[in-house]
Every structure is written in C-alpha cells, then in structure tokens.
Amino acid sequence: MTRMSSVCFGRQMRAATMPELALGRLDELKEYDCREFSIGAGDWPFRGFVVRKGNQVFAYENVCRHVGHPLNLTPDKFLSRDGQSIVCASHGALYEIDSGVCFAGPCQGKALQKVACEIRDGVIYVTARA
C-alpha cells in the first residue's frame, strides 16, 4: 500500500467510537478548494470540511470560534477571495489554512478544531466523532 504524505492533524482516536469517512480522491479536489462532510445521523451530525493546499489536506470542524455557527453560507465555500485563508462568511474572521489559527477578526488567536485526516492510496479520509 502506497501512502502519500499528508499534514493532517488531530488527536489519537479509537476507531470504535470515531467513524472514518472517505471523501474522495485527492486529485478530484483542486488546489485551494474545499469539501464539506458530515459524520453521523439525526439532527446533530458532526460537520466539518477539508481544504487542499498542494498535496496536503487540512481538516477542521465547521464551527466559527467567534459565535459557534458554521463558517460558510454556501456549500463547500470556506476560503477568502484570494484563496489563501479560511474565512467566516458571517463576520469575516480569517484563519490560517495549515494551522486553523485566527489571525484577523473578533476571535484572533483562537483556532478552529482540527479533525484527524490522512491520504491513503490517493483517497482523503477523515475521522471524527459521530
């Protein structure tokens, strides 16, 4: 099995309580593009997103650190106009893609919650609580 190096972050998680989800192939996601996902069923599934930057993928929970609502208003749209930062569509807070740290806006210094992810055989996988 060939593994592609990835810079995905997250805590060690037990597979029994943390389901894994395949999001598709890395080559299907353009550079500086995003893909939303949800894990679990019912009224409150876990919602997150991934961002591709080069051959790396970064995954975060879709929750603004300022007021706790989703970052995006439009499906799969999480980046600033120049594509260099994650942006909260409600109040314009800007977050670094590779660390999730807010560098501009009302939640400056706080960071998005990272989600465990990896690329295996060219496929993006995320693991998060259901």
**Approximately how much helix is present in the residues?**
under 10%
SSE pattern, N- to C-terminal? EEEEEEEEE
Instruction: Please give the count of helices.
Output: 0
Total domain units:
1
Q: Name the average pLDDT.
A: 87
CATH H-level homologous superfamily name: Rieske [2Fe-2S] iron-sulphur domain
- CATH fold category name: Rieske Iron-sulfur Protein
Q: Under the CATH scheme, which architecture would be assigned?
A: 3-layer Sandwich
Low-confidence stretches: 1-7, 9-16
Q: Major sheet: order of its strands? A: 1-9-8
CATH class: Mainly Beta
Principal-axis shape: globular
| Approximate strand percentage | 25-35%
Structural class, judged by helices and strands? mainly beta
Amino-to-carboxy terminus distance? 28 Å
Number of strands: 9
Radius of gyration: 14 Å
- Main pleated-sheet profile: 3 strands, antiparallel
